[in-house]
Each structure stands twice: as C-alpha cells, then as structure tokens.
Amino acid sequence: MSATLSPNASPKQYPFLTRQEFEFAAKLFIAQSRKASETEVWNWVEHEKFKGFGYLCRRSMVQKLAGIRSLGEGISVDEENDVFEDDDPSVLSTLSSSEEYLTVDYHVIYSTSYKVPVLYFNVYYDDGTPLKIDEIYSNLVQPSRFEDIKPAGFYGGISQQDHPTLLIPFYFLHPCETATLMRTIVGTNANKELDGGSEGKLFNVNEESLVENNNGYAIRDFDISSQKIALEGYIRSWLSLIGPVVGVKVGIG
After folding, report:
1. Rounded distance, CA 238 to CA 248, Å?
2. How far from the centroid of its chain's Cα atoms is residue 151's Cα?
3. What is the DSSP letter of 207?
4. What is the end-to-end Cα distance of the chain in Å, rounded?
5. Calpha distance 162→62 (Å, rounded)
6. Which domain of life is it from (predicted)?
7. Residue 253 has what pLDDT?
8. How far from 4 is each of 9, 16, 19, 20, 164, CA to CA, in Å?
C-alpha cells in the first residue's frame, strides 16, 4: 500500500476516498496521534476475516455536561443555552464541582456508500450502562452544537445502526454532508486570517497549522496547487471538524 500512495498526495477523487486511501490516511493519523503524545491514542483494528476492512478506534473518558436538561419536546436551543449563561455563583459552583465522566468508544469506519469516513460511537455511564439518544444529547453534546447536528446541518444527525464490523448497535454522525464539508474547509481555511488581529496575514500551509478543537477548525497538509487536503491531513482535518460535536479532541501531530 505504501508503495503506491504518498502522504503528500491528495485523494484521487477528492473529497472522496477509496478504501485503500482511507486505510493509508488512517494509519498516518495514528502515527500523528502517538507523536502528539496523546494519552488516549488511536488504534487500527483489522477485520477478523477480511483484510483491508479495518477501522480506527479509541476509548476516551469525556467529562459529562452538568446542569443540562434532556433534549425533549418543547425545549428550545435557547433554553438549553440559558443553563450555561446563569451567572448565579451558587449555580456556577455546582456546575464546576460536578466532574462526572462518561466512557466513549469512538470508531472511524469507511463508508462504501458515501466513500468518506464515518464517526461511530457508543457512550457509557461509569457503571457500564449505555446512554440512550436523549441522554447523549443531554450529557455529551454541547448546547451550541444542537443546530449543527440537525439532519440538514453540515454534520448530519445522530442515528443508530449496527456497526458494520461488530454487528452490534452503535450511534453515528450521518455522513451525508461530509463531502461538502471537506470541499468547503479547503477554500475557507486557505485564505483565513489567523494571526489574532493583524490584518491581511493568511494561513501558511507550509507551517504547523492551527488546531482549534472546540470550535472545529484544524487544517494541515493539503495540496495548495490543487486545493485538496493531502492524505496525511485528511483524517485529522475531518475529525477535528466533526468530532467535537460528540466530545472528540484531536491533538497536533
């Protein structure tokens, strides 16, 4: 595989990936993750029976959101945000002292239908009980992300289906808009002002790129001549944009 693919090359049909390109890009991303000395590193899991049908996985401890009501009927995004805007010292004290954690299994799997990566995940309380969809919204998804994960949004909605390899139920972020997202971020970030106030300074793609995990911007290693993200940067750029919706943090490789 490595003899035919180069880290600096872009996917031949960008923004789409072949399965071979996905595996190559995924293993480059693993090396970046370990280079960044992340405590929760990504690993490659090969399919037991079919070579070339593996996927990325990582188990993470993610802090549970405090003070959020369940996303139910009649509760608006504004009402959810109001919980965090309360400046009552007693409320803020309660929120900051409540540091409960969730265990999240993240899997990045290649979609043969969409020809892009898909983020699958399952979330568990500390006693091993899996979270239901409304509990995921209320304990893992930041209120500011509610609009993002509507079915018509850039990130697609959260759905559940059987894991393509394990054949057990997993939640996933629908990939219907992934190709559009990967086209858009190149044009947006190649000309984005990044110097924090100095006008006219453009992002230099030959330098270590920005990674703004919480706000979802991380672009590095793309082919400036063709305006395509290279295989070396594809998974990290994609995951840095969609992952924060469900608590993924991506380090700098």
Report:
1. 12
2. 16
3. S
4. 22
5. 23
6. Eukaryota
7. 54
8. 10, 18, 14, 10, 27
Q: What is the largest CA-CA distance in the chain?
A: 61
**Tokens 């289906």, residue located:** 161
Q: pLDDT tens digit string along 61-112?
A: 999 987 544 444 433 333 333 333 344 444 444 444 447 999 999 999 999 9
Distance in angstroms (rounded) separating the CA atoms of residues 201 and 204 = 9
Q: Which residue(s) pair with 6 in the sheet?
A: none
Residue with tokens 């954690």: 101
Instruction: Return d(Cα 190, Cα 5) in angstroms, integer.
Output: 24
The reported pTM is: 0.73
Structure-block tokens of residue 69? 């009501």
85 three-class SS: helix
Closest among 183, 187, 216, 198 to 11, alpha carbons compared? 183
Kindly give the residue spans of alpha helices, DSSP state H, lying in 161-230. 178-190
State CA 174 to chain mean position distance. Answer: 12
Q: Which two tokens stand for residue 67?
A: 């003070």
Listed in sequence order, the residues at least 6 apart from 64 whose beta carbon sits closer than 8 Å to its beta carbon are 98, 100, 101, 102, 139, 140
- What is the three-class DSSP state of 23? helix
Copy the structure tokens of residue 89: 């010292």
Q: What is the dihedral of CA 174, 253, 45, 139, to 10 degrees?
A: -50
How far apart CA 28 and CA 232 sit, in angstroms, is 6
**Token representation of residue 193:** 């002002």
